[in-house]
UniProtKB/TrEMBL annotation:
SUPFAM superfamilies named in the record: EF-G C-terminal domain-like, P-loop containing nucleoside triphosphate hydrolases, Translation proteins
Top-level lineage group: Bacteria
HAMAP family: LepA (MF_00071)
Organism, as annotated: Leptonema illini DSM 21528
Gene transcribed to yield this protein: lepA
Role noted for this protein: Required for accurate and efficient protein synthesis under certain stress conditions. May act as a fidelity factor of the translation reaction, by catalyzing a one-codon backward translocation of tRNAs on improperly translocated ribosomes. Back-translocation proceeds from a post-translocation (POST) complex to a pre-translocation (PRE) complex, thus giving elongation factor G a second chance to translocate the tRNAs correctly. Binds to ribosomes in a GTP-dependent manner.
Protein name: Elongation factor 4
Length: 599
């Protein structure tokens, strides 16, 4: 195997700038070229029908390309960076698997927050960067302006830039030429102990967890015994190979190559992205850089609306977890909502995706409590508590120190919206770190903000005050001390655990008041007066009453026909079933849903 003819690369871009479209087009063109030159081996075997029941979920692929500039036949490995939108920085470390990247910029949009985040990542790894200006078929495309941005704002070499339309295929062959010309060949010692970096892994019902790897040193073959360097767990290799459109088994995978390993691993938790695979009988001494534990950052309680669904929910989360190492869950019980789970996610988007899948694919009706971050609370006995559930906040009289996670947020916006955005970040307790005027009338602002504020109505407001034009990216920077308090919501003097929240003292009054006002509209009147209170410790910060009234649902229907009356009664009966008892008060399930949804 000739390393000098291998190119390992990734495509990086801000969301929607055309990463997937470009990947598809590259593969398509490579296939056509190869059919024409008939020099290809890999792609020949691709045509062989091999029914294995494995669905390829990502855009990673190996393909051949005969370069026009030197007539050589190259093996190109396109490595897909995992698409977790939360925490680009943590996950995209799998860029370590390549020697170069295509940085795609939409010619109608210019540089956005994730363009920069991805660029910095590629630079950190010393990768060769080829700027790609995409969507030049659109009338609004401004290639000159984009070239200028690439030169001045990004500081990249515009001589290497290629302007393309991934949609029509215009100039995409020049991208392949640029890859073979400018991205360096991999280097690696095939005789050294094995070191293979996992850049992706996915679960297959038949084969178990399949690792996609880049081999840096050594060789891995079928029947080798491999060891995961982060956990020390060992597995027997049953197959190695490369992935074109299907997975093609090969003799071995050597230093510089990209391919897959199947080793009867039961769960993707054991094949973590960023981990290094070595051989059990000749282990490498040092793992490759790139391993960093992915930790859940946002937590919420998930409860089935129908109590009977608890087991189904448990099975469903466990199934999702098979393919998602970043998903965390443990049982939780709430007096108001019953039995459920505390689930940890990478971020809000991850949370939304997981919940949508649970509802859609597993047909579950769920109540999701307000998202929370993981606080650190030191009590007077010196113990540090990690609190990801507000209802388990320690007794305030025993608290010595309170800390919360902070993120660095990078926002790019047209200048017109700068004022609005600065107001928003200040309101969110942000500390300004940097403000840079970019070359195309946009501004980049960098702020330190508590993660808890970022997950509370930040993104939606950013989008609405900038008419959708601002983009953002964030990374965790660590914990800072903060004046946090827990707000209890009491219904008829009983605290409702599912509604407890932790916030900064400065925003506690407003948050408590909003909650009480909304709760007042959502709980129906009952035969007795119900006081609603928000309290911090023993101090009540907001109070409302729901006055007593016997509810007569049929009263509105005077003169109405009988069937309508019956329907209403029926509906009320159904609603009754879905009541949650809090002390002596019945709270409709819908009230919880409504309260928690808009948070
Ligand atoms: P995510 O997968 O969401 O991160 O987006 P992406 O960066 O992979 O972008 P994708 O390839 O899905 O393209 C986003 C949208 O832009 C799609 O609607 C594409 O059809 C469109 N698009 C991509 N390339 C071009 C192009 O060259 N010209 C035009 N007109 N549209 C394009």
């Amino acid at each position: 195997k000739d390393l000098s003819l291998i190119r390992n690369f990734s495509i990086i871009a801000h969301i929607d700038h055309g990463k997937s479209t470009l990947a598809d087009r590259l593969l398509e063109i490579a296939r056509v070229t190869d059919a024409r030159t008939k020099k290809d081996q890999i792609l020949d075997s691709m045509d062989i029908e091999r029914e294995r029941g494995i669905t390829i979920k990502s855009n990673s692929a190996t393909f051949r390309y005969t370069a026009a500039h030197d007539g050589q036949s190259y093996i190109l490995n396109l490595i897909d960076t995992p698409g977790h939108v939360d925490f680009t920085y943590e996950v995209s470390r799998s860029l370590t698997a390549c020697e170069g990247v295509l940085l795609v910029v939409d010619a109608t949009q210019g540089v956005e927050a994730q363009t920069l985040a991805n660029l910095y990542l590629a630079m950190e790894q010393n990768l060769e960067i080829i700027p790609i200006i995409n969507k030049i078929d659109l009338p609004a495309a401004d290639i000159d302006r984009c070239m200028q941005l690439i030169d001045k704002t990004l500081g990249l070499d515009i001589d290497r830039a290629v302007a393309v339309s991934a949609k029509t295929g215009l100039n995409v062959d020049q991208v392949l030429e640029a890859i073979t010309k400018f991205i360096p060949a991999p280097s690696g010692d095939p005789n050294a102990p094995l070191r293979a970096l996992i850049h992706d892994s996915f679960y297959d019902t038949y084969a178990g967890a399949i690792m996609k790897v880049r081999v840096f040193d050594g060789v891995v073959r079928k029947q080798d015994r491999i060891r995961m360097m982060s956990t020390g767990k060992e597995f027997g290799v049953t197959e190695v190979g490369i992935q074109t459109i299907q997975m093609i088994p090969t003799e071995d995978l050597q230093a510089g190559e990209v391919g897959y390993i199947i080793a009867g691993v039961k769960s993707v938790e054991d094949t973590r992205v960023g981990d290094t695979v070595t051989l059990a009988n000749r282990p490498a001494t040092e793992a490759l850089p790139g391993y960093r534990d992915i930790k859940p950052m946002v937590f919420s309680g998930l409860f089935p609306i129908l109590g009977d669904d608890y087991e189904n929910l448990k099975d469903a989360i466990a199934k999702l977890k098979l393919n998602d190492a970043a998903l965390f869950f443990e049982p939780e019980s709430s007096t108001a909502l019953g039995f459920g789970f505390r689930v940890g996610y990478l971020g809000l988007l991850h949370m939304e995706i997981v919940q949508e899948r649970l509802e859609r694919e597993f047909h579950l009706d769920l109540i999701n409590t307000a998202p929370s971050v993981k606080y650190r609370v030191t009590t007077t006995d010196g113990v540090v508590h990690e609190v990801s559930n507000p209802s388990s906040w320690p007794d305030p009289t025993r608290i010595l120190k309170k800390e919360e996670p902070y993120v660095r947020v990078n926002i790019i916006t047209p200048q017109d919206y700068l004022g609005n955005i600065l107001t928003l970040v200040q309101e969110k307790r942000g500390e300004q770190q940097n403000l840079i005027y970019l070359d195309d009338g946009k501004v980049q602002v960098v702020y330190l903000i508590p993660l808890a504020e970022l997950i509370f109505e930040f993104y939606d407001r950013l989008k609405s005050i900038s008419r959708g034009y601002a983009s953002m990216d964030y990374e965790l920077v660590g914990y800072q001390e903060s004046d946090l308090v827990k707000i209890d919501i009491l219904v008829n003097a009983e605290p409702v655990d599912a509604l407890a929240m932790v916030t900064h003292r400065a925003t506690a009054d407003a948050r408590g008041r909003t909650m009480i006002e909304r709760l007042k509209d959502l709980i129906p009147r009952q035969q007795f007066l119900i006081p609603l209170q928000a309290a911090v410790g023993s101090k009540v910060i907001a109070r409302e009453n729901i006055s007593a009234l016997r509810k007569n649902v049929t009263a509105k229907c005077y003169g109405g026909d009988i069937s309508r009356k019956r329907k209403l009664l029926e509906k009320q009966k159904e609603g009754k079933k879905r009541m949650k008892q809090v002390g002596s008060v019945e709270i409709p399930q819908d009230a919880f849903l409504a309260l928690l949804k808009s948070d």
